[in-house]
Every structure is written in structure tokens, then in C-alpha cells.
Design brief:
The protein is mainly α. It has one domain. It has 9 helices and 6 strands; from the N terminus they run βααββααββααβααα. The protein is elongated and about 115 Å long.
């Protein structure tokens, strides 16, 4: 059995993975808060998509890959199957999106929360073990069943708490505290699942097919940077409920627009206006009844 090192670069990779999970969780909670105040189905779908990307893509999947940078197995190189790796990212985003749709549509209830937590937690666990299946190394990977079950239970619990926070947390300090808690839960699930793994190395190094960490690192970092910038821009550009309430308040202060005054008609006591139309085509000649003698 080969020796496994989860922290090859010391505290750097777990610290970065925790920071990413907290950042993604905070952005996701803010976007989820906009779902509750959205005025249309299209806006709810938009903010739900952004929240799913922030939590599923940044807080969960990017955290997973960052933590994997510090993973090493003695005596073998580690490569990654790119399509399977990308599939794990898609699984994370879709699972969180469906979970938010379950708890965010209709009236919020315990039944919806449990259903969303079960689905999302199972999706997060599927993301983790799909990402692990993407690894290519010179050896055979095995898992301890008890720890795998424990990691799935942690994933379901963390997902349920995350969805509950997404539907209830509104203010700044509460969002920060919730994001810190979510970061602990996500990292706890990851490293519990990693501790369930063991590697039986094959004799000889051999060639390992797949992409190296350095090949995947640059595009993933760029995706994270552009994704976070896009999320922040979307949040800053969109008006909040307070903005809309303030605009409505100032509209009431201005009051309704004044009605247009009717045109002023000058008096015509001697019929000069009628006489001025004589001679025009189609103008009838005034009768004595129109201008009675005075």
C-alpha cells in the first residue's frame, strides 16, 4: 500500500481551499437572497443560476480541486481525465441549482428543505467521487465503506444547512458567519472522503495518461477570477429591494403630475371672430339670427 500525503505543500492548499469555499458561499448566499425579493420568474431563475454557480462551482468544486493540489501518492505521478473532471464541476452546479429550486419555489417548509438537502448532498458527494474517479495514477484506488458513508452524511448535512441559510440569512454579518460555517462543512466533507481512500501501487512507474495539475491550474484560476468578478458585477449592478423602495418613496414625494390647463378663449362680444371667416372657401354666410341687431 502506497503512502498518501494530503498536504504536500503544507498549510497553503487547505488555507486556499477554505478561502475559496468561504468566498463562494458568501456570494452564493447574497445571490440566494435576491431570489426571495425577485419580482418575476425570470429574475428568480437568473439569481438562482448565479447562486448555483457561486456555491456549486466556487465554494464546492473549486475548493475540491484546490485541495487536490496538495494530494500526492508516493512513487507515482497523478494525472486527471479532463472530461470527467469537467463533468464533476457540472454535477456540483446542477445539484446546487436543483436544491435551490426545490426550497426556493413555493412556500418554504421543512419538507422542501429536507428534500433539497438530500438531493443537493447526494449531488455534492457524486461530484467529489466523480472528481476522484478522474485521477489517473499507477495504482489501484480503494475506499473504506464506513468513511464513504460518513462523508455522504456530512455532505447531506452541509447541503441542508446551506439551503436553510440561503433561504433565511439576509444581513451582512450573518452572511459572513454563515459562509465561515459552510466553508468548514465543505472542507470537512472533502477531507473525510479523502481519508477513506487508499492506493495499492502497481510495480514500476509506468506511463500515466491525462492532464497534469499545471495544465488544469491556469484555466481553472481564470474561470474562478472571471466568475467571481462577474458575480460581484451582477450584484453591484442590480438594484436591491431597498433601492426599489427608496425610488418608490421619492416618487410619492414628487406627487402626481399637474393636469394640463384648458386653453384660454378670448371673449368675442361683437362677433368679430365669425366675421373674420367670411370669404373663406366652405364658410357659410352668417344669417341675421347669428348676428341679431343691437
Amino acid at each position: 500500500m502506497a503512502e498518501i500525503n494530503h498536504f504536500e505543500y503544507g498549510w497553503i492548499t487547505p488555507a486556499l481551499s477554505y478561502a475559496l469555499s468561504v468566498l463562494g458561499s458568501a456570494l452564493g448566499l447574497i445571490c440566494a437572497g435576491r431570489i426571495r425579493t425577485a419580482g418575476s420568474a425570470g429574475q428568480r431563475a437568473w439569481w438562482g443560476t448565479l447562486a448555483a454557480w457561486a456555491i456549486g462551482g466556487t465554494a464546492i468544486w473549486t475548493m475540491h480541486f484546490m485541495a487536490m493540489l496538495g494530494f500526492a501518492v508516493e512513487g507515482t505521478r497523478i494525472r486527471y481525465d479532463v472530461p470527467v473532471t469537467m463533468a464533476s464541476a457540472v454535477i456540483a452546479v446542477i445539484a446546487v441549482g436543483i436544491g435551490l429550486a426545490i426550497v426556493g419555489t413555493g412556500r418554504f417548509s421543512v419538507v422542501r428543505l429536507i428534500a433539497g438537502g438530500l438531493f443537493t448532498g447526494a449531488g455534492v458527494a457524486a461530484m467529489h467521487y466523480t472528481g476522484m474517479a478522474a485521477m489517473r495514477l499507477s495504482g489501484r484506488i480503494e475506499y473504506d465503506t464506513t468513511r464513504v458513508v460518513l462523508s455522504v452524511a456530512i455532505a447531506v448535512g452541509a447541503a441542508t444547512v446551506a439551503l436553510w441559510l440561503a433561504m433565511t440569512v439576509r444581513r451582512g454579518l450573518a452572511i459572513v458567519g454563515s459562509a465561515l460555517v459552510m466553508g468548514v462543512a465543505v472542507n470537512g466533507m472533502h477531507f473525510t472522503g479523502m481519508s477513506a481512500m487508499s492506493v495499492h501501487r502497481h510495480a514500476g512507474q509506468g506511463d500515466v495518461a491525462g492532464a497534469g495539475v499545471s495544465t488544469l491550474l491556469v484555466p481553472i484560476i481564470l474561470a474562478v477570477v472571471f466568475g467571481v468578478v462577474g458575480l460581484v458585477y451582477a450584484l453591484l449592478a442590480a438594484p436591491t429591494a431597498e433601492d426599489r423602495a427608496a425610488a418608490a418613496y421619492f416618487d410619492t414625494l414628487r406627487g402626481p403630475a399637474p393636469a394640463e390647463a384648458p386653453p384660454v378663449v378670448a371673449p368675442d362680444p361683437v362677433g368679430l371672430r365669425a366675421r373674420s371667416t367670411l370669404g373663406r372657401p366652405g364658410t357659410p354666410f352668417p344669417s341675421r339670427r347669428d348676428n341679431p341687431p343691437r
